[in-house]
Amino acid sequence: MPHDPITDAVLDLIARQDPDVAGLIRKEGQRQATTIELIASENHVSPAVMHAMGTCLTNKYAEGYPGARYYGGCVFHDQVEDIARERAKKLFGCRFANVQPHSGAQANMAAMMALMEPGDTFASLVLKDGGHLSHGMKINFSGRFFRPVHYPLHYPPGHPEHERIDYDAVKALCREQRPKVLMCGYSAYPRVIDFKRFREAADQCGAVLVADIAHIAGLVAAGVHPSPFPHAHVVTTTTHKTLRGPRGGLILTDDEDLAKKIDKALFPGTQGGPLMHVIGAKAVAFGEALRPEFKDYARQVVANARALAAALMTRRYRITSGGTDNHLMLVDLRGRDANLTGADAEQWLEAAGIVTNKNGIPDDPRPPRVTSGVRLGTAAVTTRGMREPQMERIAGWIDRVLAAGLQSPGERESTSRGVRGEVRDLCGQFSLP
Ligand SMILES: *Cc1c(COP(=O)(O)O)cnc(C)c1O
Questions:
Q1: Domain end (from 247, 266, 289)
Q2: What's this model's pTM, rounded to 2 decimal places?
Q3: Hey, CA dihedral for 255, 260, 262, 263, is it positive or negative?
Q4: 417 lies in the same domain as 388
């Protein structure tokens, strides 16, 4: 397996001082290299993005923004952050970007702080149907300091739009509750989000529309999913999912007044010193996403998701909403067998080298620790160069492992061992970037 020679050199260097940590990083590298990563929120960054994070940019305090820092010596940090901001604006076609959020949740916290006072009402998706914990979970800051009200995901069973966003319900909720902020954007929604209709709902009560595109940012940047601009007032996102950058967050807007409020709410409102090494890596990743090859990548991510969903459906798995428009799908395992649970599937597949996560499906009768579904995404396998034929093979392996698991523990173990070997071989042919 071709290795990134710089990573090898870095690990040798760490190992001389700290063999314990270096050993674990090496093992994790091996795990990533030899398993199929289907977790929809994960990806493999390029060596350039990876190594930008491991640089001297980390040594500096750069509280404030370019040209207005609270510490001296920020000449080069200013230029790095400026490049990151300019590229983010170009990538998403908007006027203002804040590249400092440490994560997606931090981006949402700053956006909420900028747009609401404690106790104010905001509207978002019912959490169990694919919302995010930073969209109003009771024990999260968003649920403790603000008042979340929720719209249901979907129309009832039998409706042609079953398991898709019910925009009429969103509008009705806005009329009744008059939220100050309306949030859209999800962690497990496989269909196109109609930002225009969300804006219409927001306009009914004068709400600010926040689109959290954490999952689909790479698809939006590549033009493979419609842009939230000009409909959303504020856009928040992570940088590490389909966008394939370092772990981090980003806030975008076209509105100058909102941009000023957001900058203040981020620093000093909710964060201290920015992670400048991560901002350097964001700049590198945004540069990659601006290249034409990234469009090809994003198109293939969606084509692979469609192929994987179709291959599973021919094996009698039910895909919620009947398919996918983006990088992810929710597999309702009960379609294959009423006794299959998400928890079992996740565990059995991991033993075979296929990494997924259990996920509730809409109206799931099982509790969140068990669930009736798994969420699968194709961002990471597409980065390795896999295409439709490989999706077909992966679907076949998934079905073999789950079918064996339903038979007996012994059958499961021997099938897992066999599939594990085949997965290893395939990973050898499609190496990490
Ligand atoms: C992943 C995700 C986030 C949060 O990202 P973190 O970087 O883990 O804080 C926020 N919103 C949505 C919709 C997400 O899917």
A1: 289
A2: 0.96
A3: positive
A4: yes
| Local structure of 190: helix, strand or coil | coil
> Which of 242, 271, 289 represents a domain boundary (last residue)?
289
Q: How many structural domains are present in the chain?
A: 2
pLDDT in tens, 323-364: 999 999 999 999 899 999 999 999 999 999 999 999 999 889
Average pLDDT of the segment spanning 130-137: 88
Q: What digits encode the pLDDT tens for the residues 41-52?
A: 999 999 999 999
Selecting among 238, 253, 320, 324, the annotated active-site residue is 238
**Cβ neighbours, 10 Å, residue 75:** 9
CB of 228 closer than 6 angstroms to any ligand 1 atom: no
Ligand 1 atom, smallest distance to 41 CA: 1
CATH number for 311: 3.90.1150.10
120 lies in the same domain as 85: yes
Catalytic, 120? Answer no
- For ligand 1, atom 3, the nearest C-alpha belongs to 104
User: Pocket of ligand 1, candidates 125, 134, 240: which has the most ligand atoms within 8 Å of its Cβ, to mutate?
Assistant: 134
Of 26, 90, 197, 247, the active-site residue reads: 247
Neighbour tally for 192: CB within 10 Å: 15
- Contact, 242 vs 219, CB < 8 A? yes
336 lies in some domain: yes
Residues in a beta bridge with 149: 123
Query: Domain of 78?
Result: 56-289
Among 124, 187, 275, the mutation site with the greatest number of ligand 1 atoms within 8 A of its Cβ is: 187
- 212 and 308 assigned to the same domain: no
Alpha-carbon distance 233 to 198, whole Å? 11
